[in-house]
Amino acid sequence: MEFRRLGRSGLTISEIAYGNWLTHGGQVEEDAAHACVRAALDAGITTFDTADVYAGTRAETVLGTALAGHRRESIELFTKVYWPTGPGRNDRGLGRKHVIESCHASLRRLQTDYVDLYQAHRYDPSVPLAETMTAFADLVRSGKALYIGVSEWNAEQIASGSALARELGIQLISNQPQYSMLWRVIESEVVPTSEKEGVSQIVWSPLAQGILTGKYRPGEQPPADSRAGHAQAGQSMQGFMTDDILGRVQQLRPIADDLGLSMAQLALAWVLQNRNVAAAIIGATRPEQVRDNVAAAGVTLEADVMTRIDDVLGDVVERDPAKTARG
């Protein structure tokens, strides 16, 4: 495993992070989820990412149980707040009441006294940014969160949040966007602003929810045991399931073969070539997927390989910065 600093901070995280969106508490049984977490730890992953809303709060509970007994200081534990976690009017958003209460609930589910990174899962235009950042600052000062991050904020929002964080004496050190060979909407605006503000990217869906593994082929039904074949989990990936995209992805296989990499390793290595990316978040339903994915850490792709990838994918790549948070 290789490690990188997160933002302009002293926090070091693993290049491959383990996330449990769509899997823990949902797509896989708890025993399988625990096996994947053990495989991640055995492979050198130290960074674990979740959110209060995943699987209706069950994902945090599963992860907390899976990590119970492991030395807390040797891992970096991240979670998020924003989406509804209950029926009440204040069970959602980034108002002070929900931010504070959701953090306390996450800590209980994760069986820990603090999280290393507490993230705003989206931007909330209905709440003054000062209220949100002040609530985050209070959590940092109380020791319940060590650092603050955001997810799917655009460049202007990141700049405003960073400025306010500095005024409050805390560090906003990360953004968690969707980013992959197929989805590059952060490159033109979010990444340059983040570099200026001392913010790193912790990217989700670096495999385009499994599309870039090459397991899905044009004109064929997805395997029944795959994410795309899962009635609920597969809904979020339908935009990638076109014959054009699937055909282009198959053309990446010779590139991966030439490098001695699996398709997943090639896709993960690709996002890690971006110097503003601190980690790529992987999900897994089986331990062997974890072991395959971690081999992408430390891989360098030469310029000619990056060009070959661009030539293959061509105009199926999404680059529009206006689509931030729409993936």
UniProtKB/TrEMBL annotation:
Source superkingdom: Bacteria
Keyword annotations: NADP, Oxidoreductase
Residues in NADP-dependent oxidoreductase domain copies: 15-312
Alphabetical list of CDD domains matching this protein: Aldo_ket_red_shaker-like
SUPFAM superfamilies documented for this protein: NAD(P)-linked oxidoreductase (SSF51430)
A GO molecular function held by the record: oxidoreductase activity
InterPro entries for this protein: K_chnl_volt-dep_bsu_KCNAB-rel (IPR005399), NAD(P)_OxRdtase_dom_sf (IPR036812), NADP_OxRdtase_dom (IPR023210)
Cellular compartments per GO CC: cytosol
Family of the protein in this entry: Belongs to the shaker potassium channel beta subunit family.
Identification of the protein by name: Aryl-alcohol dehydrogenase-like predicted oxidoreductase
Lineage: Bacteria, Bacillati, Actinomycetota, Actinomycetes, Geodermatophilales
